[in-house]
Amino acid sequence: MKCRVCSSEELEPVVDLGMQPWGNHFLRKEEVGTEPHYPLRVMYCSKCSTSQLDYTVTKEVMFGDHTYLSGVTRSLSEHFRKIAVEVDKRFGAEVGKKNVLDIGSNDGTQLKHYQQLGWNVLGVESSRTTAKIAVEAGVPTLNRFFNIECMEEIGENFSVFNAAGVFFHLEELHSVTAAIKKGLRRNGVFVVQFLYIKSIMENDAFDQIYHEHLLYYSLKTLAALLRIHGLELFDAYLSPIHGGQIIGFVGHPGVREPMARLRELQATEDASGCNEREAYLRFADRIKAMKARNLAYLRAATAAGKKVFGMGAPVKGNTLLNYFGVGTNFIKCLLEKNVLRRGLYSPGMHIPILIEGEVDEIPDIYYVLAWNFKEEILKNNRHLVERGVEFFFPVDPR
Predict the structure, then answer these.
(1) 46 pLDDT more than 90
(2) Beta pairing class for 120-124 and 99-103
(3) 8 A C-beta contact, residue 314 and residue 334
(4) What is the pLDDT of residue 72?
(5) DSSP string, 274-335
(6) What is the pLDDT of residues 90-111, one digit of tens each?
(7) Are 346 and 373 in contact, with CB atoms under 8 Å apart?
(8) pLDDT digits 0-9 by tens, 5-22
(9) Is it true that domain 294-392 has CATH number 2.40.40.20?
């Protein structure tokens, strides 16, 4: 293969999580056992340092329709609200026309917050189900994949582009980046939110590796991509959402001076060594150790006769369950807020999914797969913690 960013062929495997199903392919009962499995392996480019998957499940399979909804989690919606307020305060007065295009806009949660601030909004969302939900909620949304052809058809320039948790999904990476360059006003801002490989490594959050996440950016590797297309970062900060996510601000070169906190973040990144091959190899060793610890914990719980439920059914949880080999031998069910997953089964491990509030039974242990919302989960379930129910976090960000 060639590097998805720089086209170099100098790539080598650094993290191998085996053959796994597509993590967002939650199964109907009649589909259980029929789901395809694909390699889930991270490659390291020695030329530009970008880490990336070497196998692509096509975008039509992964994003043509799916069950993920941004608006299900209160803390994520609040995060999106803060982003919209920040953009409005920092750039609203200087960008002229207040219009924003959200790439991979999902159910419109991010754009609703811009609407409340008086912005004109447009979402571009490939999933039929979620695009329909957004339109019904009053958020103008195109149901298609965003790329240069889409941008040309839209035929409008935007003051703000937003890509929240989607810029590392892109099969058409260069077409999308070129489209942003083409459609961004001269003093406009591209707000890119992405999982930060430095945080993934520090948190041992290997479950954030799955087929939808084709790339794993650092500031260095994102900058390399942007340079190719005549764009540049001028500001960034680390947000705690999802265990550590970069909020980056991108514009046309020379329009805005790089901010001091961006340079400080870049210096910290360089000093950490997270862009080096050896950091990935150490990460791979820690993943193997995590598997051994988690299986020992679950075996002990089972031997003690304790009942274990999974808390949440996030896509990343399926990476963890499949790599660990944890199914109904250890976990009775997965409790989920998203009603689109009612009655479905997890891909690979085939654990039944039940909806929170529809289950009276209380387990001895909740094995929390949605660990990135730890604070919200513990707050919402304080009464269970006080009763002695254990909440175990297989990934616990530092």
Answers:
(1) yes
(2) parallel
(3) no
(4) 64
(5) TTSHHHHHHHHHHHHHHHHHHHHHHHHHHHTT--EEEE---HHHHHHHHHHT-STTT-S-EE
(6) 999 888 889 999 999 999 999 9
(7) no
(8) 999 999 999 999 999 999
(9) no
Structure tokens at 234: 């001028």
**Residue range 222-239, pLDDT digits in tens:** 999 999 999 999 999 999
pLDDT reading at 64 higher than 80: no
> Are 265 and 258 within 8 A, CB to CB?
no
Full strand arrangement of the beta sheet holding 365-368: 353-355, 334-336, 308-311, 365-368, 390-392
Rounded alpha-carbon distances, angstroms, from residue 126 to 64, 142, 240: 6, 8, 27
Residue 37 — φ and ψ, nearest 5°?
Answer: -115, 150
Residue 4 has pLDDT above 80, yes or no: yes
Average pLDDT over residues 25-43: 96
Burial class (CB in 10 A: 0-12, 13-18, 19+), 371: buried
- Residue 103, Cβ neighbours under 10 Å: how many? 25
* Measured CA angle at 174 (ends 314, 223), to 5 deg: 80
Domain locations along the chain: 70-277, 294-392
pLDDT over 70 (residue 257): yes
Q: Classify domain 70-277 by CATH number.
A: 3.40.50.150
Burial code (b: 16+ CB inside 10 Å, e: under 16) for 59-76 equals: bebbbebbbbbbbbbebb
3-state SS class at 13: strand
Contact yes or no for 156/184 (Cβ under 8 A):
no
What helix, strand, coil percent values describe the chain, rounded to 5?
A: 40, 25, 40
Helix (H, G, I), strand (E, B) or coil at 116: helix
Cβ neighbours of 229 (radius 10 Å): 17
**In whole angstroms, what is the distance from residue 250 CA to residue 230 CA?**
11
List the beta strands (DSSP E) in the chain.
Answer: 11-21, 37-45, 51-53, 99-103, 120-124, 141-142, 158-164, 184-195, 215-216, 232-239, 245-251, 308-311, 334-336, 353-355, 365-368, 390-392
Prediction pTM value: 0.92
Give the chain's mean pLDDT. Answer: 94
Q: Do domains 70-277 and 294-392 have the same CATH topology?
A: yes
